[in-house]
């Protein structure tokens, strides 16, 4: 079997700090927070009344108005981002090779907004008022399905649903398919839009969300001693992966190379990681093993970094276990300090930013890290971005159910 090198040739993002990648990246590097009072619904009765919403996004710039009315917000994000992705990559799929182009997009919950609205209508007006578009609007794989229809990709088409690791697992599956020759190119990443009454209420019931209502922009504070929970976000992050042969044949610009994917399970608890971060360790080591890299080869880590007490301490311990003495030398960042926790979209958005870090030579900061936590004693790039030549980035995603996924990217070299 021939194993193919896999390169990143396109990037796109819709985030709480920008409706395109250029704006999102500029604001990420500047340390801008996307947290603000919730506008999607009246949150006055909730313990948490703020979130990282995507702001003023007009999907009709990318989706016909008639179709837009039949799609949930998460699918609108995905189709819009995919359109921007293909433009960024300079790639139009030739119908003759459409079966070799995959679409694999992770999503944790799917159309929760549609589900809640339809259930309310069902209770108030009866089953005859349920829309025939309800099911195809709600299901989590509709993002991948609609992207496939939009760009004409006829290869593997699926959705990975693994909580907050969904987007990273999607990238890992796409990477593996291309490496093994099952596809020559893949649109992959993650999408989510669940800033809804039920989701916020559910995460409040878990005591997972920050309740810093008096100062939302200071609420997401990964690795800080005063962190009190994550800030729910939404958005989409997509990459175009291609085999090196396919990219070369069409003269594609190459941002970076994808070189390792690791996945694991904690086998421990529904929502909490084990204190020693064992599952995180297994996933990071698996990605490094596939890339044939040792601790000294890791130049930067884009951490899961949720701003929750358990995750941040466990992830710190896991990084120290994996990298040993080298851990103190590695700059780490948490994009979630600015964009919040975008759930199933997190791994997609953060992988996009990881590749941008390599391409631009800039490590975005971790904002709001003001009070050192003795349990979190590594270099988290506090407050201000760093300019540096970054050869490798390890990007981490972990989720409820004890699911873990990591991708390793490196600067491309012939």
From TrEMBL:
<protein>
    <recommendedName>
        <fullName>3-oxoacyl-[acyl-carrier-protein] synthase 2</fullName>
        <ecNumber>2.3.1.179</ecNumber>
    </recommendedName>
</protein>
<dbReference type="InterPro" id="IPR014030">
    <property type="entry name" value="Ketoacyl_synth_N"/>
</dbReference>
<keyword id="KW-0012">Acyltransferase</keyword>
<dbReference type="InterPro" id="IPR016039">
    <property type="entry name" value="Thiolase-like"/>
</dbReference>
<dbReference type="InterPro" id="IPR014031">
    <property type="entry name" value="Ketoacyl_synth_C"/>
</dbReference>
<dbReference type="InterPro" id="IPR017568">
    <property type="entry name" value="3-oxoacyl-ACP_synth-2"/>
</dbReference>
<dbReference type="InterPro" id="IPR018201">
    <property type="entry name" value="Ketoacyl_synth_AS"/>
</dbReference>
<comment type="function">
    <text>Involved in the type II fatty acid elongation cycle. Catalyzes the elongation of a wide range of acyl-ACP by the addition of two carbons from malonyl-ACP to an acyl acceptor. Can efficiently catalyze the conversion of palmitoleoyl-ACP (cis-hexadec-9-enoyl-ACP) to cis-vaccenoyl-ACP (cis-octadec-11-enoyl-ACP), an essential step in the thermal regulation of fatty acid composition.</text>
</comment>
<dbReference type="Pfam" id="PF00109">
    <property type="entry name" value="ketoacyl-synt"/>
</dbReference>
<feature type="active site" description="For beta-ketoacyl synthase activity">
    <location>
        <position position="164"/>
    </location>
</feature>
<dbReference type="InterPro" id="IPR000794">
    <property type="entry name" value="Beta-ketoacyl_synthase"/>
</dbReference>
<feature type="domain" description="Ketosynthase family 3 (KS3)">
    <location>
        <begin position="3"/>
        <end position="411"/>
    </location>
</feature>
<keyword id="KW-0443">Lipid metabolism</keyword>
<keyword id="KW-0276">Fatty acid metabolism</keyword>
<dbReference type="GO" id="GO:0004315">
    <property type="term" value="F:3-oxoacyl-[acyl-carrier-protein] synthase activity"/>
</dbReference>
<dbReference type="GO" id="GO:0006633">
    <property type="term" value="P:fatty acid biosynthetic process"/>
</dbReference>
<keyword id="KW-0444">Lipid biosynthesis</keyword>
<keyword id="KW-0808">Transferase</keyword>
<dbReference type="GO" id="GO:0005829">
    <property type="term" value="C:cytosol"/>
</dbReference>
<comment type="pathway">
    <text>Lipid metabolism; fatty acid biosynthesis.</text>
</comment>
<keyword id="KW-0275">Fatty acid biosynthesis</keyword>
<comment type="similarity">
    <text>Belongs to the thiolase-like superfamily. Beta-ketoacyl-ACP synthases family.</text>
</comment>
<dbReference type="Pfam" id="PF02801">
    <property type="entry name" value="Ketoacyl-synt_C"/>
</dbReference>
<dbReference type="InterPro" id="IPR020841">
    <property type="entry name" value="PKS_Beta-ketoAc_synthase_dom"/>
</dbReference>
